[in-house]
Amino acid sequence: MPDTLTQKSIDFFWELGLHNERPWFQAHKEEFVEVLDRPFKRLAQETGTIMKDRLPQRDLSLHVSRIYRDARRLYGRGPYQDNLWFSIQEGDAKKQGPMFWFELNGEGTSHGLGYWDRSARQAGVFRRMIDQDPEAFVQLVEAMPHRERSRLWGDAYKRPKGSYGPVIDPWYNRKQASVGWENFFGPALFSPELPGLLAESFLGLLPLYDFFLHAYRTCRMEELEEEQNSLWGIPGGDNGDERI
To answer: How many CB atoms lie within 10 A of CB 149?
Structure first.
């Protein structure tokens, strides 16, 4: 019984894509548990443990996805996901703030740093922080390990919000901004060393993660302040979101 991912883990997604229906899955449930579910959960737990050991001062939490789609959101698709993923994030930033993620599907893997769904206001605060010190953000991006192999995900604004040059602009002019790598680990994907390699890759993104997290917390603090002001009948100020 494998305790690491194998080629069979990826192959299972291909088979599931051809037979995304309950009778087939039930007939292959033991295979799913053995080649995909159990080793994936083990990877998530071991990676999360390493991250917590390396960052004991942080309130990190681990979330692991399920293979089952929400029955209310099938939209004509089969009942099973075509990927599995896990995320690691600060306890006060669940679902809204930034996270480290790892995903496995039939094409391989992706991992990196991003959001569940960054709000327009969070994006505005993110840009405002860049405005305050563009060169500091350039240094963060340029210091990212394996930057030459990385990619940015996220829809761009139809009308750019501003320009600071080729390093900043791809970040500044995206509604969402996630950065990471696809099929990064090669043969090590199937090795017992993967949790340590993945944790090291996440830790290499920690300075950027802290920038993302500060933007999230600043946004949340402003929202709470406005909520309190509204309770006292105090008019809100300029929140800097006119350009969003």
So the answer is: 11
